[in-house]
Structures are given as C-alpha cells and as structure tokens.
User: Which sequence fits this backbone?
C-alpha cells in the first residue's frame, strides 16, 4: 500500500502493468522490444471517499475511463523498469493533487 493521506491509499496489488512498444525513435531495437508501460488502476477496487473521487475525476479526467479505470502510459525511458517507476510516480502525484481539498468560500 502506498499511503497518500488519512483514508486514501494506493493498493499496489491491483495495479496492472502492460508492456507497450515505444513510439519514440530508438534504433532497430524499438520495433522488437516493448519498453513502454501502460499502467491501469481500478478506482472502484477500493472504497475511496466521495470528495476524493470527485477531485480525481476533475483533475485527472483525461486519464480516467468511464468505467473508473485510471490509465497512465509511460514511454519516456528505454527500459521497462524505469517506465514502470515513472508511471507509478505520476499516479502518486495525481493522487496527492486530488487529496487537497479546496476551502469553501463564504
């Protein structure tokens, strides 16, 4: 589990990783090796507070499908290991932005 705040965690056991081919130039190897990563995380797999779901849907709307699946692709690096770490880092960053609640204006 990756702790974000009081009752918001990322359950690492339900993160799915899939290797994808990078679309970046990289020589002959780019056509043979799936060095990119596609991360999928089901937001319905854990009971998150409603305010958090609203925030993450608003902030990360381009990453979340209609079914509530968070999709992040990383093709920044030439190795799957580094791309996997980058995808998880971006996911944690999105979660941290989403736990910040806006103060109500009077």
Assistant:
């Amino acid at each position: 589990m990756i702790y974000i705040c009081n009752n918001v965690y990322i359950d690492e056991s339900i993160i799915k990783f899939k290797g994808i081919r990078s679309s970046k130039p990289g020589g002959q190897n780019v056509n043979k090796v799936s060095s990119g990563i596609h991360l999928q995380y089901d937001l319905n797999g854990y009971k998150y507070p409603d305010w958090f779901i609203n925030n993450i849907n608003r902030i990360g709307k381009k990453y979340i499908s209609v079914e509530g699946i968070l999709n992040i692709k990383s093709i920044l690096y030439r190795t799957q290991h580094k791309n996997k770490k980058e995808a998880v880092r971006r996911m944690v960053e999105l979660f941290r932005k989403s736990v910040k609640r806006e103060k109500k204006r009077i």
